């Protein structure tokens, strides 16, 4: 028995926690609503007018029945005149007064909700840009997209339903009950008998709906994430003939969503079945009791008909409130997922007193740098210590997985060093603003990402306010101008997603052109030519030779023949600087570098 009581206490505690979480989410969401509060108030006021006008109809029907059609003291001519007078009033209300009210109510409601969603997505996108690469390494892109698109869109229902329709339905219920009380108190009390049972059933059934809705949204995000990855990598699926294998995995993922959706639908259907049954009882009670009163001549037929009409207008909003409960539950579950994303902590951010890094001379130093991807994880770099002077070219070589790319990632603060310091011009990179730091660094990767925009827009990423002349000059310096003007629309040619319409060499030259346009004092080349054919490599190497002139350059290379000219070569082995020197000095040592060079020479 005590165990049951203990479980009940836990259930009650959990319910309270869920209610507090819901209230917290709503409170946070209201921050986005606050700038539009006067528009919200105006929309609700217009909405009350819209819903109030139809509430006059049952009363008019009662007047027509009792005071015109069933009134013995009127002639046919008088009845006809009064009837058409009332019909004229109704026509004016519904065809002249109500249409503009309906228009402005819909327009203001959509305007309000769309502006709120616009503001939320703006803040979310700004937040996404501040999250470190560590977050994106651990999170599926489809999951992020699902939260920014689907979940944010779902919260629109909170605005439309929770902040507008809910209050309009409540206002309608209050107005209807007031009118009914003015017509007949006893009949009104009979009409409201079902209300307590309605309230109990809503509380019981919709308590669990939030967790079911959340599980459904999570499963849907899983389907979207899977699709995003597979559509992006469709060439791999086809090249390995994995269609059947991938279909089986998708069926499983899609099936999981189906199960969650069916769980949600079953519980939803039960709740509607019970609640609608309760609300259907009330009209029957009214008809029975009102009919009895008419027989006893304690009630007119007009009042009975009006009451039946009003009972529909009373329980219609109540049924909508049940539907609103489902909608609001889904919206709040989406809010939770949206705020989970907003609450992701920044691994890398500006210090409160961060200063602007002026144009760098290019001196780069690592002072006893140790790095771990996870706080308590294994160290990837161990006490890395080196200095690169302004204008020098430094190469990092070694086996794959040794830590070369990690070292490069610490310079622009894609990650922060766990211990030690990374310095530019003797200034710790943690002490300067991220924008001013990254403005000093240009990066050319082995697989540069181009966006599905024009060639010109991709080059302009190096300097968004550059002139056409500067863009062309950068393209010429990168040996890209000739192939660009040969494209169907020249510089305005769309390159497709990730630059799929361009060859590997063309993509690389566009990436180099935007670095030329940026003109940074520090340059990072991460395997910039390793995946290209000989002709493309020659063109790109020529453009890189011009690019590195008078800049501090860090080169990561597997082909050692391409870095023999470097001022310094650092051999990285298991996260440590194992050797350092020029090509000639390292060859004389006959250590790791010498062995690597001999193996590549034999190859």
How would you summarize this macromolecular structure in one to three sentences?
The protein has 603 residues and is of the alpha/beta class. The chain has helices at 2-33, 37-52, 56-69, 76-130, 133-138, 141-154, 156-183, 185-191, 195-206, 209-232, 234-239, 243-295, 301-342, 404-410, 434-438, 455-460, 468-477, 481-485, 504-518, 534-547, 583-589, 592-602; strands at 364-372, 379-388, 393-397, 419-424, 427-428, 441-444, 522-526, 552-556, 568-573, 576-581.
Structural notes for this entry:
- Helix 2 (37-52) packs antiparallel against helix 4, helix 4 packs antiparallel against helix 6 (141-154) and helix 10 crosses helix 13.
- The strands form two sheets. Strands 6-7-8-3-9-10 form a six-stranded mixed β-sheet. Strands 2-1-4-5 form a four-stranded antiparallel β-sheet, with helices on one face.
- It has helices at 2-33, 37-52, 56-69, 76-130, 133-138, 141-154, 156-183, 185-191, 195-206, 209-232, 234-239, 243-295, 301-342, 404-410, 434-438, 455-460, 468-477, 481-485, 504-518, 534-547, 583-589, 592-602, and strands at 364-372, 379-388, 393-397, 419-424, 427-428, 441-444, 522-526, 552-556, 568-573, 576-581.
- It is built from 22 helices and ten strands.
- The protein is an alpha/beta fold and 603 residues long.
- Mean pLDDT is 83; it is low at 1-6.
- Strand 9 (568-573) and strand 10 (576-581) form a beta hairpin.
What are the key terms here?
single chain, 603 residues, alpha/beta, 6-stranded mixed beta sheet, 22 helices, 10% strand, elongated
């Amino acid at each position: 028995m005590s165990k049951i009581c203990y479980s009940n206490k836990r259930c009650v505690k959990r319910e309270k926690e869920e209610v507090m979480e819901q209230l917290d989410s709503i409170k946070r969401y209201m921050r986005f609503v606050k700038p539009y509060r006067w528009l919200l108030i105006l929309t609700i006021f217009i909405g009350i007018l819209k819903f109030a006008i139809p509430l006059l109809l049952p009363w008019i029907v009662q007047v027509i029945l009792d005071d015109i059609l069933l009134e013995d003291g009127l002639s046919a001519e008088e009845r006809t005149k009064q009837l058409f007078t009332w019909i004229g009033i109704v026509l004016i209300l519904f065809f002249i007064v109500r249409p503009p009210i309906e228009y402005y109510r819909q327009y203001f409601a959509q305007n309000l909700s769309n502006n709120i969603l616009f503001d939320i997505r703006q803040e979310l996108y700004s937040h996404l840009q501040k999250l470190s690469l560590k977050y994106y390494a651990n999170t599926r892109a489809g999951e992020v997209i699902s939260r920014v698109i689907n979940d944010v869109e779902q919260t629109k229902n909170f605005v439309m339903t929770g902040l507008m329709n809910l209050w309009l339905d409540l206002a309608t219920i209050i107005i209807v009950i007031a009118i009914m009380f003015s017509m007949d108190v006893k009949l009104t009390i009979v009409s409201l008998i079902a209300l307590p049972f309605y309230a109990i059933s809503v509380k019981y059934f919709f308590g669990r709906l939030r967790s079911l809705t959340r599980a459904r949204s999570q499963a849907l995000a899983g389907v979207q994430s899977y699709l995003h990855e597979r559509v992006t990598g469709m060439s791999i699926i086809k090249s390995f003939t994995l269609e059947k294998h991938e279909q089986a995995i998708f069926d499983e993922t899609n099936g999981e969503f189906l199960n969650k959706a069916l769980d949600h639908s079953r519980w939803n259907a039960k709740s509607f079945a019970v609640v609608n049954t309760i609300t259907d009882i009330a009209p029957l009670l009214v008809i029975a009791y009102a009919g009895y009163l008419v027989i006893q001549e304690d009630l007119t037929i007009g009042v009975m008909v009006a009451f039946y009409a009003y009972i529909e207008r009373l329980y219609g909003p109540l049924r909508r409130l049940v539907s609103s409960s489902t909608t609001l539950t889904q919206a709040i579950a989406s809010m939770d997922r949206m705020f989970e994303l907003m609450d992701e902590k920044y691994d890398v951010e500006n210090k409160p007193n961060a200063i602007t890094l002026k144009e760098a001379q290019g001196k780069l130093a690592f002072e006893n740098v140790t790095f771990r991807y996870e706080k308590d994880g294994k160290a990837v770099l161990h006490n890395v210590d080196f200095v690169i002077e302004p204008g020098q070219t430094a190469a990092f070589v070694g086996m794959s997985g040794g830590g070369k790319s990690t070292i490069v990632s610490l310079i622009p603060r894609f990650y922060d060093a766990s211990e030690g310091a990374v310095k530019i011009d003797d200034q710790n990179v943690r002490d300067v603003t991220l924008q001013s730091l990254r403005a000093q660094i240009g990066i050319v990767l082995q697989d540069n990402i181009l966006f599905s925009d024009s060639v010109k827009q991709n080059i302009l990423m190096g300097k968004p306010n550059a002139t056409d002349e500067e863009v062309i000059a950068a393209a010429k310096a990168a040996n890209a101008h000739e192939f660009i003007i040969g494209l169907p629309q020249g510089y305005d040619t769309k390159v497709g997603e990730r630059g799929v319409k361009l060859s590997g060499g063309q993509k690389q030259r566009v990436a180099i052109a935007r670095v030329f346009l940026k003109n940074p004092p520090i340059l990072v080349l991460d395997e910039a030519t390793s995946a290209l054919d000989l002709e493309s490599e020659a063109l790109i190497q020529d453009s890189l030779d011009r690019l590195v002139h008078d800049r501090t350059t860090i080169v990561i290379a597997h082909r050692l023949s391409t870095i023999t000219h470097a001022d310094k070569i650092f051999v990285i082995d298991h996260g440590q600087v194992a050797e350092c020197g020029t090509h000639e000095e390292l060859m004389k040592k006959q250590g790791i570098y010498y062995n690597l060079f001999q193996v590549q020479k034999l190859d």
